[in-house]
## 1
Amino acid sequence: MPLLDIAGLHVDFPSHQGVLQAVDDLSLRLEPGEVLGIVGESGSGKSVSMMALMGLIPFPGRVHAQHLRFGGQDILAASESTRRSIVGKDIAMIFQDPMTSLNPCFTVEFQITETLRLHKGLTRKQARMRACELLEQVGIADPAKRLGAYPHQLSGGMSQRVMIAMAIACQPKLLIADEPTTALDVTVQAQILDLLATLQKEHGMAMVLISHNMGVVGEVAQRVAVMYAGQMVELQSAQHIFDAPQHPYTQALLQAMPERSAGEARLHTIAGMVPGMLDRPPGCLFAPRCSRAQPACTTPVPIRSALHLQVRCHFSGETFEPSTP
């Protein structure tokens, strides 16, 4: 049984102009202990899909799916109390910006021990001892002193380490890391990624790593899902997605990596913009930006599935010339 089984997930945001499809028919599975990377441009639905899993989609957002199972239980259909017992304990999330994710009104000790006392039933003394252990585990020096600090007294890297300590406090089965290196300098980014990889192996937990950076995902993840305009356009192993990407969007993302443009006069770019609520094209959503688009790309695009591969493209794996205007 997969740890996480998402089928036909949709997240919509109604407005007076129409309905924004933030996530459009997402289906994926995650095995226990597996690391999945999710990549794509801003607005592609990476974070929103995981926020839907956590039950954090704000009004007037609407979430519906065929099923949203965690450990065999459909948490979308579960009661509020059941969902609360799972989220924060068995599923934990590290949010994008550590400087704004911590509550500025409470100390580090309160914010970590609150989780421990709620989900683990620890006494105040036990929770404090466990909080010290967690801060030491994530590499914070003098943890007993740091427990009394407020978020504004911490650096960005230290705030992120506190967020990680909070996330692993209850030894979750699934950790969602949403752009965990945002707003951190390069040296600290590497430290945080190494820490997450180490904790994932030590605890044997599954992890979803959301990132814009294909290189970062390639170092950590076993499989990679590529999202575009709310749809998953490709899913395969990290090794194969770098060696033999099937979707034109995945190929364009890899070509835009600076290390793949070494010696060239200019970096590769992807022309155009991600479609919004009012300009979603028929058929393939990437077609207006794709240099290899064909007339068939204006028709509905099926998900092609093979062994360890899913791709949403009429011409995946085929070599063909761009159509003549």
## 2
Amino acid sequence: MFFAALRRLPVAAAAWVLWLTATAVGAAEGAGARPAFPRPLADYAGVDAPGLGATLTARAAADPFNVVATCIFVLAVLHTFLAGKFRHWAHVVEERHCARLARKRQATDTNDDGTPDEVSFGGQVLHFLGEVEAIFGIWAVVLGAAVMGFKGLDTAIHYIADTVNYTEPMFVVVIMALASTRPVLRLAEQAMKGVASLGGGRPVAWWLSILTLAPLLGSLITEPAAMTIGALLLAKQFYGLNPSLGLKYATLGLLFVNISIGGTLTHFAAPPVLMVAAAWGWDLKFMFTHFGWHAVSGIVLSNATYLLVFRKELFALKAAAVDKTLKAEEPVPAWVTGMHVVFLGFTVWMAHYPALFIGGFLFFLAFAQATAHHQSKVELKSPLLVGFFLAGLVIHGGLQAWWIQPVLGRLGEVPLFAGATVLTAFNDNALITYLATLVPGFSPELKFAVVAGAVTGGGLTVIANAPNPAGQSILQKYFPEGVSPLGLFLGALVPTVIVAFSFMVL
């Protein structure tokens, strides 16, 4: 009977596959009848109540999954605050594992048997749970399972594969890879070196030059590119000199805040501005006159404040900088640099068309291979991790509109600015501004307040602004236990207050 059953297995397997196929086809044919997910905000009009609490309660009752999705999102946010703990536990587990392997070698009197050492599975899992860039992707799996359980497999697949827009995560991957190449970095470094030379090329001059010019580049080459260039140059010219931990966090917070507001001089580079520019008719002139000078003022005042606070330590880094500049690098031919600028410009131009900017990136990889003697290794690990982080974030963020939209819609100008700043700390600022376009009857003053608040709060957490994970990924190796969310918040708090003053008072 056993062998007879085995002979029937292929038939049973084929039948099972045919059943799954028929089920999938039937689901696809019935997709037209699938209820919209997430539920459109307009559908809540019949249940909304006068008070905010009553409105949120009614929306939660209308679709209980709203509460489930938000609870999962809150758990993901809390997980980011515990990432350092997971990394610490990973080190403890791996040290115990190494000690156990050492005792085993001593017992068998062998040091090298030619086989790879056994890897600590538990340690690797804890390392993965401690990777900030992986956290929202991990919880996206939990969210997908919850959607499947509440709404069905077809709805889960449709939401993750069709509803969520992954253009920005894909764009960040490509722009990070392009901006971190040797020719682009050399070009940016030379530009900032000219400004730093006014201060004698000392570390404090480099610090001030990078934190002023790199954020403003975000209005031309996009914020992710500006963040990548700024973080890489800070790593080379500042963090490599081993400043104090307090100054490290202050600089990281300052970089994140400055990048967040530095892209507001134009209408095409910063994601939170892109979300509203077409809907509200904001053009280059409008952005430069209404936001540009506020942003420049905020950057200058924030840099000056931290320069004053940390002046002794910043100026004391002078002696250490001399040894770091002795070795001259081979120059990159102008035509190679020019081609990199062309690829970078094409990617920015086609930022909304993944098929085109990814195709352009493939051509770039071929060009980089053909000019390998002028290139550094094209780094993809960090860009891919950041893209994974953002993809997970937009999956979660798309299900938070049910509570963010009524919160924004009930606030006046100053409360709206403050509310957008606070909400941005817990969600990507581009999502905050996008949801603002869904609120009817916004006056010009309220539109300014919500966008200004969203970009002001863009440095408070790693999830507040899309380019932040890129900067953290590049610089986290200079922090002993990784970047602490509390340390980042404290480092960004003072610049955030200064920027708020610049937007709302100046």
